[in-house]
Amino acid sequence: MENRQNALTEINLTSLVDVCLTLVIVFMASSPFMLESSIQVSAPSGQRNVIRPEFLQKRTAVYIKSDGALLVNGKTVDFSALKEVLRSQLKQSKNHDLLLAADDNVSHEHVIEVIDQAKLCGVAALYIVKSKSNMTLQVQGNSL
Fold first, then answer.
1. pLDDT tens digits along 48-65
2. pTM (two decimals)
3. Can you spell out the DSSP letters for 121-133?
4. In the chain, which ranges are continuous DSSP H helix?
5. Residue 142 contacts by C-beta under 8 Å, 6 or more apart in sequence?
6. What pLDDT sits at residue 140?
7. How far apart are CA 132 and CA 74, in angstroms?
8. What is the CA radius of gyration of the chain?
9. CB atoms within 10 A of CB 89
10. At residue 92, does pLDDT exceed 90?
11. Rounded distance, CA 47 to CA 130, Å?
12. How far apart are CA 54 and CA 138, in angstroms?
């Protein structure tokens, strides 16, 4: 009876050690994937970049207001008519470039929708401007 009582009081550590070592190996193997899946984003600096007037000439500019309204070269445009307006503006422009700016509280969804429409219209290059104040110069004769 004494042997039976000793057998019950002993703990088998072999399986516990096996499980712990297996977990360590899994975490070691998966840690590089966690680091690689992150995206490094650098915040914009506080200094203001100067946009040369010749850069803005013959380029289409789209500004998205916080209420969802769109301005294309300073003129209010409904989202349903954006594709036609962009196509006509791009036909008139020397190059098929688009300047895009939005208010700070505009959702990413609205910005992506405008980018998608621009791609469908054949925009060659898309420039995302931090704020409307960077686009205050004359764009195709219309100030934003």
1. 555 555 555 667 888 998
2. 0.56
3. HT-SEEEE-S-GG
4. 2-9, 14-36, 53-56, 82-92, 108-121
5. 73, 74, 75
6. 36
7. 11
8. 29
9. 21
10. no
11. 12
12. 10
- Alpha-carbon dihedral sign for residues 74, 80, 81, 83: positive
Percent of the chain topping pLDDT 70:
67
Give the rounded distance of the alpha carbon of 142 from its chain centre: 28
> Is pLDDT larger for residue 38 or for residue 109?
109
Alpha helices, DSSP H, located in 37-107: 53-56, 82-92
pLDDT of 44 strictly over 70: no
Instruction: Quote the CA–CA distance of 19 and 80 in Å, as a whole number.
Output: 59
Q: Is the pLDDT of residue 144 over 50?
A: no
**Identity at 105, one-letter amino acid code:** N
Query: In whole angstroms, what is the distance from residue 113 CA to residue 122 CA?
Result: 15
How much is the average pLDDT of 94-98? 81
Tokens of 62: 């789209």
Q: Which of 81, 140, 82 is nearest to 111 (CA)?
A: 82
Q: Residue 107 has which token pair?
A: 């959702």
Going by C-alpha positions, the residue among 94, 95, 68 that lies closest to residue 82 is 68
Token pair 């110069």 is at which residue? Answer: 137
